[in-house]
Specification:
Elements (H helix, E strand, L loop, with lengths): L6 E5 L3 H12 L4 E5 L2 E5 L8 E6 L13 E3 L4 H10 L3 E8 L5 E6 L5 E6 L2
Parallel strand pairs: 1-4, 5-8
Antiparallel strand pairs: 2-3, 3-4, 6-7, 7-8
Helix pairs in contact: 1-2
Protein backbone atom coordinates (compact mmCIF):
# COMPACT_ATOMS: atom_id res chain seq x y z
CA UNK A 1 0.00 0.00 0.00
CA UNK A 2 1.30 3.44 -0.87
CA UNK A 3 0.67 6.63 1.08
CA UNK A 4 -1.77 9.18 -0.29
CA UNK A 5 0.54 11.96 0.90
CA UNK A 6 3.55 12.51 -1.36
CA UNK A 7 4.72 15.96 -0.28
CA UNK A 8 3.81 18.65 2.24
CA UNK A 9 4.91 22.24 2.81
CA UNK A 10 4.65 24.18 6.05
CA UNK A 11 4.56 27.97 5.48
CA UNK A 12 6.89 30.16 7.53
CA UNK A 13 7.33 33.87 8.12
CA UNK A 14 10.89 33.39 9.41
CA UNK A 15 12.51 30.29 7.91
CA UNK A 16 15.56 30.33 10.19
CA UNK A 17 13.37 30.49 13.30
CA UNK A 18 11.16 27.68 11.98
CA UNK A 19 14.21 25.52 11.22
CA UNK A 20 15.45 25.94 14.80
CA UNK A 21 11.98 25.06 16.15
CA UNK A 22 11.52 21.84 14.15
CA UNK A 23 15.11 20.69 14.61
CA UNK A 24 14.78 21.22 18.38
CA UNK A 25 11.36 19.62 18.81
CA UNK A 26 11.87 16.62 16.52
CA UNK A 27 15.59 16.13 17.00
CA UNK A 28 16.19 16.15 13.24
CA UNK A 29 18.31 18.15 10.83
CA UNK A 30 16.66 20.09 8.01
CA UNK A 31 18.48 20.96 4.80
CA UNK A 32 18.06 24.63 3.75
CA UNK A 33 18.00 25.33 0.02
CA UNK A 34 16.68 27.83 -2.48
CA UNK A 35 14.38 26.01 -4.91
CA UNK A 36 12.76 27.91 -7.76
CA UNK A 37 13.71 31.18 -6.07
CA UNK A 38 11.95 30.18 -2.84
CA UNK A 39 13.75 29.57 0.46
CA UNK A 40 12.96 26.12 1.81
CA UNK A 41 14.27 23.65 4.40
CA UNK A 42 13.73 19.99 3.61
CA UNK A 43 12.84 17.22 6.06
CA UNK A 44 14.87 14.05 5.42
CA UNK A 45 12.94 11.26 3.71
CA UNK A 46 13.67 8.10 1.81
CA UNK A 47 12.91 7.48 -1.89
CA UNK A 48 9.26 6.60 -2.55
CA UNK A 49 8.24 7.96 0.88
CA UNK A 50 6.35 11.15 1.68
CA UNK A 51 8.58 14.17 2.16
CA UNK A 52 8.16 17.81 2.93
CA UNK A 53 9.68 21.16 3.68
CA UNK A 54 9.37 24.42 5.53
CA UNK A 55 8.74 27.19 2.98
CA UNK A 56 9.20 30.96 3.17
CA UNK A 57 7.13 32.34 0.31
CA UNK A 58 5.39 35.74 0.36
CA UNK A 59 2.40 34.19 -1.43
CA UNK A 60 1.64 31.87 1.51
CA UNK A 61 1.12 32.70 5.18
CA UNK A 62 1.33 30.47 8.24
CA UNK A 63 -2.04 29.61 9.75
CA UNK A 64 -3.61 27.56 12.51
CA UNK A 65 -6.60 27.01 10.21
CA UNK A 66 -6.68 24.66 7.27
CA UNK A 67 -4.92 21.41 6.50
CA UNK A 68 -3.30 19.55 9.41
CA UNK A 69 -0.02 17.71 8.85
CA UNK A 70 1.09 15.03 11.33
CA UNK A 71 4.84 14.61 11.71
CA UNK A 72 6.56 11.50 13.06
CA UNK A 73 7.60 11.95 16.71
CA UNK A 74 10.04 9.03 16.29
CA UNK A 75 8.53 6.93 19.10
CA UNK A 76 9.20 9.70 21.63
CA UNK A 77 6.13 11.95 21.62
CA UNK A 78 6.50 12.82 25.32
CA UNK A 79 10.03 14.15 24.81
CA UNK A 80 8.94 16.14 21.72
CA UNK A 81 6.14 17.76 23.71
CA UNK A 82 8.57 18.75 26.48
CA UNK A 83 10.74 20.56 23.91
CA UNK A 84 7.90 22.51 22.23
CA UNK A 85 7.70 25.33 24.79
CA UNK A 86 11.48 25.59 25.09
CA UNK A 87 11.66 25.97 21.30
CA UNK A 88 9.13 28.83 21.32
CA UNK A 89 5.94 26.95 20.44
CA UNK A 90 2.92 25.78 22.42
CA UNK A 91 1.17 22.48 23.01
CA UNK A 92 -2.45 22.84 21.87
CA UNK A 93 -3.63 19.28 22.57
CA UNK A 94 -1.68 17.00 24.90
CA UNK A 95 -0.95 13.36 24.01
CA UNK A 96 -4.08 11.44 23.06
CA UNK A 97 -4.35 7.65 22.66
CA UNK A 98 -5.95 6.93 19.27
CA UNK A 99 -5.98 3.15 19.56
CA UNK A 100 -3.97 0.86 17.27
CA UNK A 101 -2.29 3.70 15.30
CA UNK A 102 -0.71 5.03 18.53
CA UNK A 103 -0.76 8.53 19.97
CA UNK A 104 -1.12 12.09 18.67
CA UNK A 105 -0.74 15.62 19.97
CA UNK A 106 -1.21 19.02 18.35
CA UNK A 107 1.27 21.86 18.69
CA UNK A 108 1.50 25.45 17.48
CA UNK A 109 4.89 26.23 15.95
CA UNK A 110 6.80 29.52 16.11
CA UNK A 111 5.12 30.61 12.87
CA UNK A 112 1.54 30.13 14.11
CA UNK A 113 0.84 26.85 12.28
CA UNK A 114 -1.08 24.06 14.02
CA UNK A 115 0.85 20.84 13.40
CA UNK A 116 0.15 17.31 14.60
CA UNK A 117 2.74 14.95 16.03
CA UNK A 118 2.26 11.16 15.82
CA UNK A 119 3.87 8.27 17.65
CA UNK A 120 3.06 4.74 16.55
CA UNK A 121 2.58 1.89 19.03
Amino acid sequence: MTNIITWFEIPTADLDRAIRFYETVLGVTLEPEVFGGIRMAFFAHTPNAAGGALVQDARRAPSADGVMVYLDAHRDLDACLLRVGKAGGAVVTQKVDIGDPGFIAIIRDTEGNAVGLHQGR
